[in-house]
Design goal:
- By secondary structure, the protein is an all-alpha fold.
- It contains nine helices and no strands.
- Helix 4 runs antiparallel to helix 6, helix 6 crosses helix 8 and helix 7 packs across helix 9.
- The longest helix is centred in the middle third of the chain and has 19 residues.
- It is globular.
């Protein structure tokens, strides 16, 4: 294994899945800043990776996550899957790829996007409450927001 392969290996540490999951299922408390965002520290520095490496790593992890959760109905299992958490651990550099993927193929990327934003002390309340649970409306709202924030062209 060469250096780049080692860097891109799925070796994420200091990610406490319970903490992240509590953060995901208790968004109101985090929005109100009653609880601090969990620390998401990858073993490697995604900020130091070039865009092609982040894109490649995202594609590998996204494919793994989709394949391994295809027949899973539990949102707990879907959002706590190690590949999904590894995508979150990539941080801000992965956001353009998450938005692009969301724009092309609606999927449950909202939690990953929200988690990354919250970990960077940002918050975006883009989905209307009446649209919760409607994948297409939630996707449309996030894609529009992504375009406004220049994550998408």
């Amino acid at each position: 294994m060469n250096y780049n392969q080692a860097i891109l290996a799925t070796e994420v540490t200091d990610i406490d899945p319970v903490s992240i999951w509590n953060w995901i299922i208790q968004p109101t408390a985090y929005r109100k800043r009653e609880l601090g965002a969990p620390s998401i520290q990858p073993r490697y520095n995604a900020q130091a990776l070039g865009e092609p490496q982040v894109k490649q790593r995202f594609r590998e992890l996204a494919q793994q996550w989709e394949e391994e959760t295809l027949n899973v109905s539990s949102l707990t299992e879907i959002f706590s899957h190690e590949a999904y958490l590894a995508i979150i651990a990539l941080g801000r550099p992965v956001l353009p790829f998450l938005f692009s993927e969301l724009d092309q193929r609606p999927n449950f990327w909202f939690t990953a996007i929200s988690s990354i934003l919250l970990a960077n002390n940002e918050y975006a309340d883009v989905v209307r409450e009446e649209d919760y649970g409607n994948l297409q409306k939630m996707t449309d709202a996030w894609v529009e927001w992504g375009k406004e924030q220049s994550y998408l062209d």
